[in-house]
Amino acid sequence: MKKKVVFFAGILIGLLGLLGYSIYALSIQKGQDTVTRVYQNDVNGTPIVSPSPITLVSKAGHRSPFNAGIPGYILTSKNPLGTAIPRQNQTIELIYKSAQTATQIRKALADSRYLSAGTQLVSTPVFNGHQYTGAAQRTVGRISTSSDGLNWDKLPISYPAARLQNPAVVYRQGNLILLDQKGVYRTADFVKWQRVKSQFTSSRFRAGQFLTAITVKSGPPVVIVSGKNPQTGQRGYYYGQLTTKKFQVTAWHQLNLTLSKSENLVGLNAIGKRMFAVTSSKKQLRLYVGQSLGDKLKHVGSYEKSPKQSITSAGVIRLKNKQYRLSFNRVDHRQFQLGTTYIDLSKQYKKTGKQHQLRTDFMWHRFKISDSKS
User: Fold this and answer.
1) 292 and 275 in contact (C-beta within 8 Å)?
2) d(CA 95, CA 69)
3) CA-based nearest residue to 178, from 167, 193, 188, 164
4) Each residue's pLDDT tens digit in the chain (374 positions)?
């Protein structure tokens, strides 16, 4: 008799446990969603991934799909997220440092044939190679390296805690420099950045807008800006070499580039002594080349583009076979960015073959390409 009581008591406890678990599981299924926001930032507080934050919406107790790992980075802060979605809403900041040492980063920069500086849009996600670029968006600085001009890898460092617009990069004597409209940022350890305020002003022009920076063999880089002539109101292009300490320009010269009213300058870079400018109109990309910085940039080629797409950035590099590659960003009429496309050009700047997609490990929002070996 006693054994039967124990037996039935065990069954009853088991049934009650099963019933309790079923009620708990049902409550999870019918309960409100839990919202968890995760910021994945470098040691300067700059977002590493897009979008930022990552938002997890699910029932409490369900398996979390979040993976804290980021290629090229090491998590340095405690991760409070477990394998299951928590029962309360929360916001979490995870901090990462580069998985590479300063020596390894210097080697990657030295070994790379090409460098790209630009921005990544971290406010909106990327779906099927498309990213919405409309409305007010947050952009952060990025640097990418490449050995062939086709495959590009983001440099896994800590970036300036600033909303950069359209920066250019210069690497010389162990110093990495990002130049943008509102400041010049310099680092030697790839973590801490020293900022110097930019002042692109002159009696020769007003409303100076930073366009790019060019590395020269002797001395600091040369910057190029656009500005309006104070007498005529017409927009022109000016260049000058930065001073070594304060990163200011004391002597400006006019760039010999004349464009029509229908052309928008979307790219400007140097290969060796030659200057390359890329413009965009409704149906064409146009390429201009000058034999030196002070030489007249002449029209050498035109390339078709869709009238329903706008071009936001462009750049030219020279390939190992002495041909050229023209890369450019496309944005459609709905303000969705379509990625970075390229076409290859002959020595005479004639298009060869079809256009293809550049292989980047994040969506380039704006970019400037430079040939570090030219």
Assistant:
1) yes
2) 11
3) 167
4) 544 544 444 454 444 445 444 444 444 444 578 899 999 999 999 999 999 999 999 888 888 889 999 999 999 999 998 888 888 999 999 999 999 999 999 999 999 999 999 999 999 999 999 999 988 789 999 999 999 999 999 999 999 999 999 999 999 888 999 999 989 999 999 999 999 988 788 889 988 999 999 988 777 889 999 999 888 888 899 999 988 777 888 899 999 999 999 999 999 999 999 999 999 999 999 999 999 999 999 999 999 999 999 999 999 999 988 899 999 999 999 999 999 999 999 999 999 999 999 999 999 999 999 987 66
Letter for the amino acid at 274?
R
**To which H or E segment does residue 121 belong?**
strand 114-121
Q: CA 143, CA 149: separation in Å to the nearest integer? A: 14
Of 345, 285, 288, the closest CA to residue 312 belongs to: 285
Residue 145's nearest CA partner among 99, 101, 105, 112 is 112
17: which residues sit within 8 A by CB, 6+ positions away?
A: none
